[in-house]
Design goal:
The structure holds 2 protein chains of 2 kinds.
Chain A lengths: L28 H23 L1 H27 L10 H12 L7 H23 L6 H14 L7 H4 L15 H7 L1 H4 L2 E2 L2 E2 L2 H7 L11 H14 L4 H22 L3 H10 L1 H9 L11 H20 L5 H19 L7 H5 L3
Antiparallel strand pairs in A: 1-2
Helix pairs in contact in A: 1-2, 1-3, 1-10, 2-3, 2-4, 3-4, 4-5, 5-15, 9-12, 10-13, 11-12, 11-14, 14-15
Chain B lengths: L9 E3 L5 E3 L1 H6 L5 E2 L5 E5 L9 E2 L6 E2 L4 E4 L10 E2 L3 E11 L6 E11 L16 H10 L12 H5 L6 E6 L8 H8 L1 H15 L3 E6 L7 H9 L3 E4 L9 H9 L14 E5 H12 L6 E8 L3 E8 L4 H7 L7 E6 L21 E6 L17 H5 L6 H10 L2 H6 L10 H5 L6 H16 L1
Parallel strand pairs in B: 3-16, 11-12, 11-14, 12-13, 15-18
Antiparallel strand pairs in B: 1-2, 4-10, 5-7, 6-9, 7-8, 9-10, 15-16, 17-18
Helix pairs in contact in B: 5-8, 11-14
The chains are: A mainly alpha, B alpha/beta.
């Protein structure tokens, strides 16, 4: 905006009026997204090594679908002279990667494609356009929605072949007793690296060949996620409070039921659906609270809900918990406000 | 060279964010160069926080260097007189857009005759002068806080029951180095000013707040130590330069929003104000000139000694650049300085810097993206408010929510905008929110 005022001298230069500041840190949204993508790339690479070609195909499908939709919408927006929603493919790329890493390896490829399509079209573009911001985590909501629809297929004889992404036998597991919990761990005990059999605990920590693709190596997700959270300043309070609460609940349950508390931690915290969700989905900025205290509350409640749903063998419990918590975010934004500088002392009359 | 490893120096903010201060450090070794007055000086009749002064002379009248040209004795403590920066004649008394208030305010345009700098007021002997005499001189010399706020110095020094005087030499702006340069060039004058302020306030405890490391300004530090002045080395941080935050940092006391540091027994003065107080009392010099740092990417940083009322185009030409070479000019620093519409705008008492941007330096906030709610803004906020939530409330026009979010506490430091990955200029919403609740309270 140029404001010209009357001046006597003809050689006076006119300038733009802009409000301060004029300096920026340089870390832009694109850079943030690309760095997040790079961090997840390390996890994806490891998952492909552990889970094989199938994991790679899932990732390619998820990212391919998302990028295809982005490309079409971006081209349409440019063609119609509309300001593009995303100035580069960085953000959709992260979305595609999250969808891929959040899919169970046993999922049929068409289900992965479906989740990716729903995520980018309905819950990323659609939510942003019609609600001006994303209240729900796009990938989690798309998965929950699809899970709900696909769950109806349990009435069929072989639901997995029809597209149901979770095994019905999960419903028969009893995690409330030490024996039931131990018996449920057989699937992890089959894991082996280079012919060496791994215990369920070690498998859960390092080498899971089923479950979420992104959680193939739980410890790696913990390390890469922690580096990313520090480097890119994720909402780390959510991560810390969720992990601590989950760990406390796991240990307590282990102690109360008489089972192995370490195996409890390995299962409840390090299964792919939980550890990946905590670092890369529960910290999704738009659908999570801003105030610091609210982030702690969000993390604690998320952990408790996830844990309860896990105990009851609810399929996709962690993402259902996440979507429920997303719905509470506008409320949490109001309750966790910190006392600003100087205000507390006024209230006390000092 | 005063400092080593200048290119590696950063201010570290809350949440681990960094502000590069290599621009500032490059200016530290640059001695003040005096800018001669322009042919026409444009002097605003209000250069302080408070009401406008009234012109004391008419168009056509002759004025001397340091002669009072604007005052209003009926205005109370918050009126500070304005003086002529040159010998000359009053060409015109007119109206001009004030760079801070953004409203039309009175200016006196003076045709310069000579560059005389003879003292207009008689020097005072502090030993023979009462507190009232000293306070009166500070007022008559037109002294205001030179750190940027331009609060009348006499009003601050009139406070009673003060236990601590803090001299703020923290100088937080990332591209301004005039305070540190003043310390290097005028250590004794600054010490005299500090002693005078302490005498007026009757304080026993004086704290010199600096960001320099021990031994970096050895001569001055020795002077301070020999005069029992405590040195507080403040962590390298941009926002702690703010008066209220400095009090918290040094004394661990918070000043409530409705109060000021004197209410808790503390007075904070900028180091350049101490210098001005000394010059006014010992030298009889009104506040008509000051040191500032000119910065542009092409020229780098330069410290200049400039008279208030000097038009920007005159300063730019003096440092060898054309006013037309720039797209934007800010009176002040990269973080807080308001921009001016054209190069005829003059230097004010509170102008500690001129920052000039060429046509190639686009405004980083020009094409902002939708907020991603990353919470960087509230993480970095030094006063613990929520710029993003305030932005949402301000967009809705929700004054009640703005009040609950304490928008009034914002110090407009610009850090929330600085860290925003979507490059949203939150400062616009924060100032808008403050204005909204002010209007709502009326």
């Amino acid at each position: 905006m140029k404001i010209l005022i009357k001046v006597n001298k003809v050689d006076v230069a006119s300038y733009d009026i802009v409000n301060p500041p004029y300096l920026h840190s340089g870390l832009t949204k694109n850079e943030l997204m690309l760095k997040t993508f790079l961090m997840m790339l390390v996890i994806a690479f490891t998952s492909v090594i552990i889970m094989g070609l199938t994991a790679f195909i899932h990732l390619i499908i998820a990212m391919g679908v998302v990028l295809l939709v982005y490309g079409l919408i971006h081209s349409y927006q440019i063609w119609r002279g509309i300001k593009p929603t995303y100035e580069s493919p960085a953000s959709p790329l992260v979305t595609g990667m999250i969808v891929g890493l959040a899919m169970p390896i046993a999922s049929p490829f068409e289900v992965t494609a479906g989740v990716a399509l729903l995520t980018i079209l309905v819950f990323k573009y659609g939510q942003g356009k019609y609600f001006s911001r994303k209240y729900l985590n796009p990938a989690a909501t798309a998965k929950v929605l699809l899970l709900f629809v696909l769950s109806i297929m349990f009435i069929f004889e072989n639901p997995l072949n029809l597209g149901m992404i979770f095994h019905t036998h999960h419903l028969s597991l009893n995690l409330f007793t030490a024996e039931g919990f131990q018996n449920s761990m057989w699937i992890f005990e089959r894991e082996s690296i280079l012919g060496i059999d791994l215990s369920a605990t070690l498998s859960l920590f390092f080498w899971q060949t089923h479950g979420w693709i992104g959680g193939a190596c739980g410890v790696l997700v913990l390390i890469i996620g922690s580096i990313a959270a520090y480097w890119l300043k994720f909402k780390w309070r959510i991560i810390v409070s969720t992990i601590i609460t989950m760990t406390i609940l796991a240990v307590s349950t282990g102690l109360i039921t008489g089972g192995d508390p370490i195996l409890r931690i390995a299962f409840h915290v390090f299964t792919g659906s939980v550890i990946f969700m905590i670092f890369f989905m529960a910290t999704e900025p738009q659908s999570t609270p801003m105030p610091e205290r609210s982030q702690y509350i969000f993390g604690i409640v998320l952990a408790v809900l996830t844990f309860i749903l896990q105990l009851f063998n609810v399929l996709g419990g962690s993402i259902i918990a996440l979507v429920l918590l997303n719905l509470l975010t506008p409320y949490l934004d109001r309750i966790g406000i910190k006392t600003p500088y100087g205000v507390k002392k006024t209230k006390r009359g000092e | 060279m005063i400092f080593d490893n200048k290119s590696k120096i950063y201010f570290k903010e809350k949440g681990g964010f960094k502000v590069d201060i290599s621009m500032k450090m490059s200016a530290v070794d640059d001695a003040f160069k005096e800018v001669p007055p322009a042919d026409k000086m444009i002097v605003f009749l209000r250069q302080h926080i408070g009401a406008e002064t009234k012109p004391l002379l008419k168009e056509g009248a002759s004025v001397s260097y340091g002669q009072k040209i604007g005052d209003d004795e009926s205005g109370g403590l918050l009126i500070v007189p304005v003086h002529s920066p040159v010998d000359g004649t009053i060409d015109k008394i007119s109206k001009m857009l004030h760079p801070i208030s953004k409203k039309e305010e009175s200016v006196v345009i003076i045709n310069t005759k000579t560059e005389n700098k003879a003292s207009y007021l008689t020097p005072l002997d502090p030993k023979q002068s009462s507190r009232e005499d000293l306070l009166k001189r500070i007022r008559e010399a037109g002294i205001v806080g030179l750190g940027g706020a331009a609060f009348p110095t006499r009003a601050k020094l009139s406070s009673n029951n003060i236990s601590t005087l803090i001299i703020n030499a923290k100088e937080s702006d990332p591209n301004v180095a005039c305070d540190i340069r003043l310390i290097i060039e005028e250590p004794k004058e600054i010490l005299n000013g500090i002693k005078l302020m302490a005498k007026i306030l009757g304080v026993g405890k004086i704290i010199f707040a600096t960001r320099t490391k021990e031994g970096e300004i050895a001569e001055f530090e020795n002077i301070l130590k020999n005069n029992s002045i405590e040195i507080a080395r403040i962590r390298p941080n941009y926002s702690v330069g703010s008066e209220r935050l400095l009090v918290k940092e040094i004394l661990n006391k918070e000043v409530s929003p409705q109060k000021y540091p004197p209410d808790i027994g503390v007075v904070v003065h900028n180091v350049a104000t101490a210098y001005a107080v000394s010059k006014a009392i010992h030298g009889g010099e009104p506040l008509v000139s000051r040191g500032l740092t000119f910065f542009s990417k092409d020229t780098g940083a330069q410290n200049l000694w400039v008279r208030m009322g000097t038009p920007i185009h005159h300063i730019l030409r003096h440092v060898g650049v054309s006013p037309d070479a720039f797209e934007r000019i800010a009176l002040g620093s990269l973080m807080m300085g308001p921009t001016i519409p054209n190069s005829s705008f003059p230097i004010l008492k509170a102008t500690s810097g001129i920052t000039a941007f060429t046509k190639n330096e686009i405004n980083p906030y020009e094409n902002s993206l939708p907020c991603i709610r990353c919470a960087y803004c509230n993480t970095v906020c030094p006063v613990n408010i929520y710029p993003q939530l305030i932005m949402e409330a301000e967009k809705r026009g929700d004054a009640n929510r703005l009040r609950k979010l304490h928008v009034d506490i914002c110090i407009e430091c610009g850090l929330c905008s600085y860290v925003c990955p979507s490059r949203i200029n939150f400062t616009n919403y924060l100032t808008g929110g403050k204005k909204r609740i002010r209007n709502n309270n009326k």
